[in-house]
Amino acid sequence: MRIAQIAPLHEAVPPKLYGGTERVVSYLTEALVELGHDVTLFASGDSITAAQLEAVWPQALRLDPKIRDTLAPHMLMLEQVRQRADEFDILHGHLDYSPFSLFSRQSTPFLTTLHGRLDLPELQPVFNLFTQAQVVSISDSQRSPLPQANWLATIYHGLPEKRLMPRSDIQPGYLAFLGRISPEKRVDTAISIAAKCGLPIKIAAKIDRVDQAYYDEQIKPLMSQPHVEYIGEISEAEKAAFLSGAHALLFPIDWPEPFGLVMIEAMACGTPVIAFKRGSAPEVVDHGVSGFLVSDEMEAVAAVNRLHTVSRDTVRQQFEARFTAQRMAKDYIVAYERLLHQQRRTVLREVALAIASILISAAGSVAAVKYALGKSQIYARSS
User: Fold this and answer.
1) Looking at CB atoms within 10 Å, which of 83, 90, 307, 315 has the fewest?
2) CATH number for the domain whose boundaries are 2-154
């Protein structure tokens, strides 16, 4: 199958540091290539992939100090994809509703994975209008604000099976917070939980510019407490040691989290997750098996005291059973095939091989084989 993966340009694919959506796009793209599919990745030029990379912008926008209008490079990318749409069986976007208008005016089937929060009132008229745009949710919970959307599937995120592994040489000694410092992620609550447990907490997190004032005014004063260690933003290579060294990952969210990639990163390292029962958390965490689902700080403290009942080997097994990139890629292939079937489309490669087979059978010579293959490629490009 010939697949176009269309990534945001804010971060490289995969990101150098933080970047949930771009990281998932990377994991999916590489898994699709491993499964034998012909994938073209539209992304920033500093991306690294086994797929065919179409570099729409030289580097990730977050790392380009000259960029002031981040919409312009994305508009350029969408038009480039549209102009080449007939080269692909499927256009798979990760830019939320941005492609809906343009891609609805071309014939190649497209779908969009919605990675963000959907409980915003301004989204209602968008999804009321674009009723034919097929979308994928990353949790069932994410769907609830937009029941009118044209949902194709729910597909949970996945990680490469060996990317993050438990570190048996590291003994757990603290509670961990990993991700982004913002009001909805509630790092202040994580700090409070750790204090009530009498345990140190290590915080590995980025601060977006939009959240800098929140950090300066409300969070920075908390960082001076003796049980708190703020590490800052960490790379992918540092995560296994950081998470393996934690008794548990604290995930005290105060918003309808669409998925929460950090939860399965912890599980990959065998680290239990203690998450507030909001958004996707009840779908990701198996209560009492891969961690605990709690309603408030006191329940979180009680859960920390019950961590001895959770096997870290079992936590890792839950990750392997539910959240690998191979499983994610196979789920997307099912969704692609469903979309093609709905629109009565034939995969371009299958069309090409069928034409080649017919012409070869009729001609029966080496020259005819070469001629047939050439014709089939031309047809595939123009179908």
Assistant:
1) 83
2) 3.40.50.2000
